Amino acid sequence: MEEYIKISQMVHSITKMDVTLNDRDGNTLFESIHHSIPVVLGHPDDEYVHTNEILNKHHSNQYYHHINPYGLEYMAVGIWREHSFYGSLIIGPFISSILVIDLIKEIMIKNSLPIGERKQLEQFYQSLPVLSEIESKYIGELLVNLCSHEYINSGQISSNTIKPVINYDQLKITIEENKDIIENRYHHQNKLMDAITKGDRAEVQILIDSLIDVFVGFSDRVPGNPIRSSKNMAFVCNTLYRVAAERSGVHPVYLHNISERFAIVIERTTTIPSLKKLMFSMANEYCDLVKSFSTGHYSPIVKTAVDYILLNLGYPISLTTIAKQIHVNPSHLSRKFKEDTGMNITDFINQKRVGEAKLYLQRGNISMTDIAFMVGFNDLNYFSKVFKKLTSVTPSQYAKKRKL
């Protein structure tokens, strides 16, 4: 199977998609994985065995387009030699829908997934390649042709290298200019990091232009490969933004998912203009993450309690439960929570749950009962009562107003 490992490596390098090579028994021989499947989505132990069984029952020139219950899509082909089945090569996950938020809404409802996982799932699904029907078809046909005959070793024809003439006077000027560019870049990056730490999107919009100008100025850092150089700068910015958001107290769970997603998107981006647009998106999304999940302004006890609430909104939560989980006295937690947030724990939880409910009321025809249970309310009447108290309208009235 050594030749198929080479094929797997090539497919991964060219498509930037995850690739897995399995033997006939479903055991993994090779994998190159960027996307770590969230634990909440699960992964059946016999999934590869099932894929092999299907491929083995069909002709060697057929490929298998598999969609699992969570909307994750995979393309698989069998490895055949003289009409004997030896294993499979699988590429994915990917998705075929650009409406990621709507897709996640459906997946969470159909599979009864906890509402606290919504943000992580959004980040994960947004990191996946989106393939059209024709692109999926071409990948399937490509894999069939790669795996239907013996691997052919290739050789490279090298070109002669022309030694450049160095103008040392110009080189000295360039070095001095680069020093100025570096100082300017560090100045702007620090101001931008401060703005992201504050969640100040307006300030971010002002500062990002200057940073991108500097960013493009470094596009020749890798000689002859400006896109590689620009990607390297984008990776640096992704890290800086993550650190800035971390300073504000955003939980590592959210930071891991957004950072990983952008790392994948950066690597898949093929033009400098697209990378410039991505720089805007990265800064704004990290800023929004701070606005939604920052807890750095709270005392350590309250920060831990808020993190626990945000990650467990879909489950039963009470003062006693939280105090037990974070190992503090309930009365002390209640007092500190009111001091830091200006509200008691129950009101804070209800406010966050109503905020989540609004997202689902705005998108599609979902029953009020389903929404209530998804966001952690065990009683529809209580959900309606709390929703009206915080928004001055009932859930039904809110949904109708959003559709107008």
Notes on the protein architecture:
This protein is an alpha+beta fold and 404 residues long. The protein is 61% helix and 9% strand. Helix 6 (168-198) runs antiparallel to helix 7 (201-217). The longest helix has 31 residues, at 168-198. The chain starts with a helix and ends with a helix.
What key phrases describe this protein's structure?
single chain; 404 residues; alpha+beta; five-stranded antiparallel β-sheet
Helix-strand string: HEEHEEEHHHHHHHHHHHHHHH
Structural class: alpha+beta
Radius of gyration, taken over Cα atoms and rounded to an integer in Å: 26 Å
The proportion of strand residues reads 5-15%
**Straight-line distance between termini:** 59 Å
Task: Tell me the major beta sheet.
Answer: 5 strands, antiparallel
SSE topology sketch:
Layout: H1 2-15, E1 19-23, E2 28-32, H2 47-56, E3 63-67, E4 73-81, E5 84-94, H3 100-110, H4 118-126, H5 133-147, H6 168-198, H7 201-217, H8 226-247, H9 252-268, H10 272-293, H11 300-311, H12 319-326, H13 330-341, H14 345-361, H15 368-374, H16 380-391, H17 395-403
Helix pairs in contact: 3-4, 4-9, 6-7, 6-8, 6-10, 7-10, 8-9, 8-10, 9-10, 11-12
